[in-house]
Amino acid sequence: MTVTLNLLPPEHTISSTLGKTLKLVRMLNVILLSGFIIFALGLAAFFAFSSIQLQSISSEVDEIKSLIVSQEKTEQAVVLLKDRLAKIGMARGVVSSIKIFSRIEPFLINIGPNSNLSELSIDPQKLDLSVVFRSNSDLSAFLKNISDSEVFKFVTLTTFGYNPASGYLATFHIL
Fold it and tell me: Which residues cross the membrane (predicted)?
């Protein structure tokens, strides 16, 4: 049997209910302390896991950024290639535009000394021509020459205007 020995004087002794309460409080403190330690360990594990995930996501983002940069370079190369192909097509068109220019050249030479060519746009299939005629006779002669000619399929007078200072402005669309 165990002997309990109380060395405190009787007026300083703890009542039994207070003793039970203190015992309960000690037990609760141990439980709460162990709960806090478990919570702290869980929180540390969460931060470690989050840190590992953050590093993983950061490396994935860096990989995606490098992939985007390489794709940008590839896309730029594709755009430059398309541009070069378009310019090659234009260069091929210039060669065939010489044919239509050689057909209109005799008419341009006979425009007249007082008249001048203000605009000429040549495509392989069509020709747009703007001429400023100083006199009515120059305009009539040019219209007669081009209408009598069988060199072009269609000749359309798209705009016609008169300015007393400069003369007649006529724009033709020729196929």
Answer: 27-49
What is the arithmetic mean of pLDDT over 135-160? 87
Q: Are 167 and 132 in contact (CB under 8 A)?
A: yes
d(CA 151, CA 130): 19
126 touches 173 (CB < 8 A): yes
Instruction: Quick: pLDDT tens for 85-119.
Output: 988 887 776 656 777 778 888 888 878 788 888 89
> Which helix (H) or strand (E) segment is 23 a member of?
helix 16-109
Q: Is pLDDT of 70 > 70?
A: yes
Average pLDDT, the chain: 88
The span from the CA of 162 to the CA of 147, in Å, is 21
| DSSP letter for each residue of 82-110 | HHHHHHHHHHHHHHHHHHHHHHHHHHHHT
Q: How far is residue 32 CA from its own chain's centroid?
A: 59
